[in-house]
Design goal:
By secondary structure, the protein is an alpha/beta fold. It folds into 3 domains: about 5-110 and about 260-320, FAD/NAD(P)-binding domain (3-Layer(bba) Sandwich), CATH 3.50.50.60; about 115-255, 3-Layer(bba) Sandwich (FAD/NAD(P)-binding domain), CATH 3.50.50; about 340-395, no CATH class. The chain is built from 7 helices and 24 strands. A hairpin with a 4-residue loop joins strand 16 and strand 17 (about 245). The longest helix is centred in the last third of the chain and has 19 residues, at about 305-320. The chain is globular.
C-alpha cells in the first residue's frame, strides 16, 4: 500500500480551520492525508468577546464545537503539542504520538500573557483588573460591570503587537455608550493608555479616531509603555515613571505566540514564527507556512487578515508541492469594522503600503459601507460578521472582495 504524504496543520482556530476546509478540496486525497491538531474541542468567536462585558452577546453566541467546522475527511487530533522538530519534519504530541509531515501549516495563534507584566496578577486580577481578550476575562468583566457605579476606568495596552489593534478603541466607544445607557456616564472617567503615539498605528486613521475619543470625552494617554502595575495603590506605572490611577483597569496584556513555538526554538522574542511577509513561508524551513496570528509578519492580527492570507497560502503550498517557488502575493490586506457605539461604526481597509483612506466599500461609489466615516451601515456590517464567520469564513467560503487590497472606491 502506497504511503500517503501528510499536510499537518497545528491549530484549529480561524486560520487552521479555513486551510483545512480549502486544502481538502485541493489536494488529491489518494496521495495526501490532512491532519489537524488542537488542544481542545471548543471554537471561540473571538471578535465577540468585545460585546460580552456590555451584555450585547452571551456566551452561547461565541462558542461552538470545532468539529462542526472541520471536514470529515480531515483527521482531527485533540492533544497538546509537545515539540515541533522542523529539521526532521515531525511533530511530537503530548499524547505520545509522533506525526511526520511533508508540509506544515502553523496556525497556533497568539494569546495574552499577563504574567509578563510585573504586578498585573497580584491582588487585583479579576477583582478590579480585567482583560477582555479571553472568554473568561470578558465574562468576569461583564459580571463586574453590572454593579459598578462609576469611577476611573483605564484601558491599557501593555505593548504591541496585539490581536485586533482597534479592539481597545471599540471597548472605550462601547463603554461610553453603555454608561450613557445606564445613566452614569457623568460618574465615569474614561482613559486610554497606549504605547502608540496616537489612537492607532496608521496616521490618518489615528487622527480621526483620536478626534472621536476627544468628542466622547475619553482621555488619550499616548506613548505610555507599561512597566508595572501597583494593584495595592491602584496605579499603572510606565517605564519612564509616569503613573496613572485607576478604579477599574481593563488591560490588554502582552500578546505572545504559543509556548510550543518557544520550546521548539522556532520563534522570536514574542514566540512568533519569523516568516516572509509576502509569501507566508518560514524564513528558515521551506515546507513550513504560517497563517493568522502565529507569524511575525507586520500585518494586523485579525480574523479578516487570516482570510486574506488564505488564497495566497493555498497557492504557495501547491506551488511548493509542484517544485515551484512561492509567489509574493500577500500585501498585508486588513479590513476592520470599528464599533463606535450608539449603533454606528467605522470601516477601515488598508495594507502594508496604503493606510486607511476615505471612500466606499466594497462597491466603488455605492458602498454600502463608508470608509473612515461613522455610519449605521458599518455597525450592522460589524454585527452581521458573526453569522458570516460561522457560516462562510470558517468554511473557507468566497467573500465579495479579493485577498489583495483594491484602490477602487477609495479617495486618495
Amino acid at each position: 500500500m502506497k504511503t500517503k504524504k501528510t499536510l499537518l496543520i497545528l491549530g484549529a482556530g480561524t486560520g487552521g480551520t479555513m486551510i483545512a476546509n480549502k486544502m481538502v478540496e485541493r489536494l488529491d486525497l489518494e496521495e495526501w492525508k490532512i491532519i489537524i491538531v488542537d488542544r481542545d474541542e471548543t471554537h471561540y468567536y473571538q471578535p465577540g468577546f468585545l460585546f460580552i462585558p456590555f451584555d450585547i452577546y452571551r456566551p452561547g453566541d461565541v462558542i461552538k464545537p470545532k468539529r462542526n467546522f472541520l471536514p470529515r475527511l480531515v483527521e482531527t487530533v485533540v492533544s497538546d503539542i509537545e515539540v515541533i522538530e522542523p529539521d526532521e519534519s515531525r511533530v511530537k504530541l503530548a499524547n505520545g504520538r509522533t506525526i511526520d509531515y511533508n508540509e506544515l501549516v502553523i496556525a497556533t495563534g497568539s494569546t495574552v500573557v499577563p504574567e509578563e507584566t510585573e504586578g498585573l496578577l497580584d491582588g487585583g486580577w479579576r477583582k478590579n483588573i480585567f482583560d477582555f481578550y479571553t472568554f473568561e476575562g470578558a465574562s468576569a468583566l461583564a459580571r463586574f460591570l453590572r454593579t459598578w457605579d462609576g469611577g476611573r476606568l483605564v484601558v491599557n495596552v501593555v505593548e504591541m503587537p496585539i490581536k485586533c489593534p482597534v479592539a481597545p478603541l471599540e471597548f472605550l466607544f462601547l463603554a461610553d455608550w453603555y454608561f450613557h445607557e445606564r445613566g452614569i456616564r457623568s460618574k465615569v472617567d474614561l482613559v486610554y493608555a497606549t504605547p502608540l503615539d496616537g489612537a492607532f498605528t496608521k496616521p490618518r486613521a489615528s487622527s480621526i479616531l483620536g478626534d472621536m475619543l476627544e468628542q466622547k470625552g475619553i482621555h488619550l494617554e499616548p506613548t505610555f509603555s507599561t512597566g508595572r502595575v501597583d494593584s495595592t495603590n491602584h496605579k499603572i506605572v510606565s517605564w519612564d515613571d509616569r503613573e496613572l490611577d485607576y478604579d477599574l483597569l481593563v488591560t490588554v496584556p502582552t500578546n505572545m505566540g504559543a509556548e510550543v513555538i518557544e520550546r521548539s526554538g522556532m520563534g522570536d522574542d514574542l514566540r512568533f514564527v519569523p516568516a516572509d511577509k509576502h509569501t507566508l513561508r518560514s524564513d528558515k524551513w521551506e515546507n513550513i507556512w504560517i497563517i493568522g496570528d502565529a507569524g511575525n509578519v507586520p500585518a494586523s492580527k485579525a480574523g479578516s487578515v487570516a482570510h486574506f492570507m488564505l488564497d495566497v497560502l493555498i497557492e504557495n503550498i501547491e506551488r511548493h508541492i509542484d517544485g515551484l517557488a512561492p509567489l509574493p502575493l500577500f500585501d498585508g490586506h486588513a479590513n476592520c469594522f470599528i464599533e463606535s457605539g450608539f449603533e454606528k461604526g467605522i470601516l477601515i481597509d488598508f495594507n502594508y503600503d496604503v493606510e486607511p483612506l476615505p471612500g466606499r466599500f466594497p462597491l466603488p461609489g455605492m458602498g454600502p459601507f463608508a470608509l473612515l466615516q461613522e455610519s449605521p451601515a458599518n455597525h450592522w456590517g460589524k454585527m452581521s460578521f458573526r453569522w458570516i464567520y460561522w457560516n462562510v469564513l470558517l468554511k473557507g467560503g468566497e467573500m465579495p472582495f479579493t485577498s489583495q487590497m483594491s484602490m477602487a472606491g477609495k479617495w486618495a
